[in-house]
């Protein structure tokens, strides 16, 4: 589950942008 969340977060952050989806970066850091 952690891996999936990390991948989704990274994809969202790259597609939409860290400014639009800051939660993506947070999720990725938590997963790591």
UniProtKB/TrEMBL annotation:
A biological-process GO annotation: proteolysis
Species per Swiss-Prot/TrEMBL record: Methanococcoides seepicolus
Keyword Metal-binding: yes
Keywords: Hydrolase, Metal-binding, Metalloprotease, Protease, Zinc
Region (Disordered): 1-32
Domain of life assignment: Archaea
Record EC number: 3.4.24.-
Domain Peptidase M10 metallopeptidase: 1-24
The protein's enzyme class: hydrolase
InterPro entries for the chain: MetalloPept_cat_dom_sf, Pept_M10_metallopeptidase
Basic and acidic residues composition-biased segments: 1-14
Organismal lineage: Archaea, Methanobacteriati, Methanobacteriota, Stenosarchaea group, Methanomicrobia
Signal peptide: none
GO cellular component: extracellular matrix
UniProt name for this protein: Matrixin family metalloprotease
Gene Ontology MF term list: metalloendopeptidase activity; zinc ion binding
């Amino acid at each position: 589950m952690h891996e999936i969340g990390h991948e989704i977060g990274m994809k969202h952050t790259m597609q939409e942008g860290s400014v639009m989806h800051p939660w993506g970066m947070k999720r990725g850091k938590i997963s790591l």
